[in-house]
Amino acid sequence: MGNYIYDFSEGNKDLKDLLGGKGANLAEMTNLGLPVPPGFTITTQACRSYLKTGELPPELRVEVTMALRRLEDAVGRRLGDFHEPLLVSVRSGAKFSMPGMMETVLNIGLNDASVQGLAEFSSDERFAWDSYRRLIQMFGKTVLGIDGDLFADALDKAKAARGVSSDVGLTATDLEGLVGEFKTIVREGSGREFPQHPREQLDLAIAAIFESWNTDRARLYRRRERIPEDLGTAVNIMTMVFGNLGETSGTGVCFTRDPSTGVVGVYGDYLVNAQGEDVVSGIRNTLSLQDFEALDPTAYGELRQAMRRLETHYRDLCDIEFTVERGKLWMLQTRVGKRTAAAAFRIAIQLVDEHLITMDEALGRVSGAQLDKLMFPQFDARSERVLLTTAMAASPGAAVGMAVFDSPTAVAWAAEGKDVVLVRRETNPDDLGGMIASVGVLTSRGGKTSHAAVVARGMGTTCIVGAEALDVDAAARQFTVGGRTVREGELIAIDGGSGEVFLGDVAVVPSPVVRYLEDGLDAAVAAAGDDEDVADLVRSVHRLLAHADTARRLHVHANADTAADARRARSLGAQGIGLCRTEHMFLGERRVLIERVILATDDAERQAALDALLPLQRADFVDILTEMDTLPTTIRLIDPPLHEFLPDYTELAVKVALAGVAGESDPHDVALLAAVGRMREANPMLGLRGVRLGLVIPGLFALQVRAVAEAVAQRLKDGGDPHAEIMVPLVASVMELHLVRDQAEAILAEVSEREGVTLTIPIGAMIELPRAALTAGRIAEAAEFFSFGTNDMTQTTWGFSRDDVEGAFFSEYAANGVLSDSPFDTIDVRGVGELVRIAVERGRATRPELTIGVCGEHGGDPDSIAFFHAAGLDYVSCSPYRVPVARLEAGRANV
Ligand code: ADP
Ligand code: MG
Ligand code: MG
């Protein structure tokens, strides 16, 4: 047809850019021979032109006239005719569905004359007036911008006057009266008469739909969903069919499978004698499809056939909008339907078993984010609950525990075997112990990247943040919300998936998927008992994960610092440890020793402390290497800034000052204060840390290298197969690495000779500074492997402080569209990603066999994994519970 118009018989489902989702699918259904009312689509191209110039393209008027003529000839009626009027709907439809952007206008073509024609032609006067009042209502609201409540109130008044509760109780006369009132509302609300000319109605509706692309609400929605601004919307003009033509007519929506559980079968709602939005708006109670079948077996049979046809054609779950006019079925819309995470996994496997899709395609139908959702326990929605407030869901899961208001209480109560939920205004690093001890964390302040949120997500602990309705009084050990006070020890329940906070106990159902991941398929199926939905879900997850494992190129390693973490990681499918942090091994009672190393005034004192640390650290490594036998285990030398191992300067200064005033000053504290003061840095994250520390504090790295070497030697002698690797953090220059390397090689040689074993322990660099990425070609001369530390690399590339960024300006940046995701959650492909690509290319140019991985938070982020795959990395490393997600995403990236 013309430039801007496609007849439904001309398009197809692959033309969504041009026809929008609705138009493309209407064309597809038309081509399949399904009963779609005839019509045509005005392309997004016309919308783009309108948005640029502010007026409808001149050719469009002519094209609409021609298309309309053709439609009129095809159905044998004229738009707005006195006798047998053709009526049309005008429906928006962009490439991506945008709820709440623009509504549809039905019954275009009705006016004071054609309403009579419609009444005669249908022999149903009530129907004709009902259709006319709907037109004025929808047109007034969506095209003329009049407050919809004015119409709704008038409708309510008419119902009250007639003494009926539903609009179907209104008579033709009532509705005719209502049309008069609606016209008055239009006149008073817009300063003009309701347009009587059908073509004017049509043109105004088309322009209004184009305009609606740029409403504030539509822009905001697009920014949030990352839908491009310049797509525009299509407009569909479609012959009206009538579900409001009495008892043998109706309208409904349905799904070809259950979108919430994935169970095979048909699901939907039907409403007799109704039109358009009536079904979803909840104005009357709907019937089930089973009721519909009983009511009209023929139409139902046709619908079932159409559903089957669509499913085999789209090879996926479809949702459908349909209407029955005097017993005849009409298909008004279809699309591939949204579904829950559980349904996604089950449906993907069902479709494979029905030979509709391949296993590779099935992987494309599920996502790591969905698997993540399935791994958290859930509250039983059927149990009774008292909602206190709803806030930001920061880390999923369902946690029930006694409210506690400080970390020491959390730790003490947990040690007694109690489940506790830590409630704080906000958390800080001192709360770490309490957070670990708690089943859930709830804060009244902070956003999705606040300390509480980030740490809880990392630990897999359920967390809700920013619950501003809570007034948390830690000193009084209570919080109040909506006039209710919850004291220490009272039970609360938090849902980290929905952000809901409940009072008291709520029954929890554990995640069967985690049981499968930890204990295997048989155990999980056995535990499901006769719950076939659960058994089927774990079987589906198993088959998809197994396929991802065969499909992927990327290996998946875990970040694990203890033998227990290592064991868990391995059971969840980790193929190695990509990051074993050693600094945690210096905390607790060992902290005094490291303090002594740092503050030593002579070599002997320092060496004594180092000697005391050696056996402790060696034992840690032996444990981990035992768990990780045969698999690569990358151990990172000490990284964090020194002050993390020393007492807090301010607290110590106060202590010393108070002791001085009391005349009881402690010379140790005074010396310590001086030392801590000397080491204070304005910007510790850019200060003395990582490799710098190793080069400045004599003996520290040597101790760690020796501990690794001796642990490997011991494992070898015990008949093990250890694969330790040593990773040097925060390298900026190849010279740093050469210095560390020379020293390390000497130690490895010495231990090897003394113990009489061959030690093969590769030494590599973390690439986490822009300079390291840019000089990767040189660094690769001294590095046997690279591992990207994308957290620090994001921080140093953007110049954002990881620890301050949230409160300072991230929310503002999200609101104004500078950032859509936090670059700390999902890799910034353009900036940080470019450094990754450069480092890979330059590193491998120097050393083609260079192994390259990533061990930052991004290693477990679904969106980032696809990028790392494309960038040619060998593995991603993430926290143990993210390993299955990474396995799935790595598989998806390679099919
Ligand atoms: P949305 O995108 O909000 O779902 P639609 O364009 O699908 O809006 O229109 C909403 C409803 O209006 C449809 O589900 C259908 O019931 C009804 N409708 C639209 N066009 C027609 C038509 N030509 N005949 C009968 N009903 C229609
Ligand atoms: Mg619709
Ligand atoms: Mg780092």
Automatic annotation (TrEMBL):
A Pfam short name: PEP-utilizers_C
Classification of source organism: Bacteria, Bacillati, Actinomycetota, Actinomycetes, Micrococcales
Family: Belongs to the PEP-utilizing enzyme family.
Entry's EC annotation: 2.7.9.1
Amino-acid positions noted as binding Mg(2+) in the UniProt annotation, renumbered to this chain: 768, 792
Record-linked PROSITE patterns: PEP_ENZYMES_PHOS_SITE
Recorded superkingdom: Bacteria
Domain Pyruvate phosphate dikinase AMP/ATP-binding: 49-285, 295-344
Organism, scientific name: Pengzhenrongella sicca
GO molecular function: ATP binding; kinase activity; metal ion binding; pyruvate, phosphate dikinase activity
Protein name per UniProt: Pyruvate, phosphate dikinase
